[in-house]
């Protein structure tokens, strides 16, 4: 997949950086997290391990489709639609 740097697309791949972001955020199991530009969902999936719900806003429809499938595969209900805009994933209870 080609990423559009002009749209600010930079994919967060390093799992140590992702984990550090989540750890420093201090997210609780009752929190609802808003993520802007989740891209491929690497951070989203880690946020779901801590938060009650993650609402992700993504403009690129290619990314939305991939993230929805990823949430669904993780067993998260409410994985949202495959169109651009906001989608939500919930942590399994």
What do these coordinates show?
By secondary structure, this protein is α+β, with helices and mostly antiparallel strands. The chain is built from three helices and three strands, in the order αβαβαβ. It has a single domain (11-90), classed as Rossmann fold (3-Layer(aba) Sandwich). Strands 1-2-3 form a three-stranded mixed β-sheet, covered by helices on one side. It is globular.
A few lines on this structure:
The chain has three helices and three strands, in the order H-E-H-E-H-E. The chain has 93 residues and is an alpha+beta fold.
Overall domain count: 1
Q: Supply the helix-strand structural class.
A: alpha+beta
Compressed to H and E, one letter per element, the order equals HEHEHE
Radius of gyration: 12 Å
CATH architecture tag? 3-Layer(aba) Sandwich
Strand order of the largest sheet: 1-2-3
CATH topology description:
Rossmann fold
| Helix percentage range | 25-40%
- Give the distance, in angstroms, between the N- and C-terminal Cα atoms: 33 Å
Count every helix, treating DSSP H or I runs of 4 or more residues as helices. 3
Biggest beta sheet attributes:
3 strands, mixed
Strand residue percentage: 15-25%
CATH class: Alpha Beta
CATH superfamily: Vaccinia Virus protein VP39
Write the layout of secondary structure elements.
Elements: H1 15-25, E1 32-36, H2 42-50, E2 53-58, H3 61-73, E3 85-90
Parallel strand pairs: 1-2
Antiparallel strand pairs: 2-3
């Amino acid at each position: 997949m080609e990423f559009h740097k002009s749209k600010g697309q930079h994919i967060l791949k390093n799992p140590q950086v992702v984990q550090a972001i989540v750890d420093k955020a201090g997210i609780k199991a009752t929190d609802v997290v808003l993520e802007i530009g989740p891209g491929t969902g690497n951070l989203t999936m880690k946020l779901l391990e801590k938060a009650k719900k993650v609402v992700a806003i993504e403009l690129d429809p290619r990314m939305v489709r991939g993230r929805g499938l990823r949430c669904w595969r993780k067993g998260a209900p409410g994985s949202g639609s495959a169109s651009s805009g906001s989608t939500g994933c919930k942590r399994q209870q």
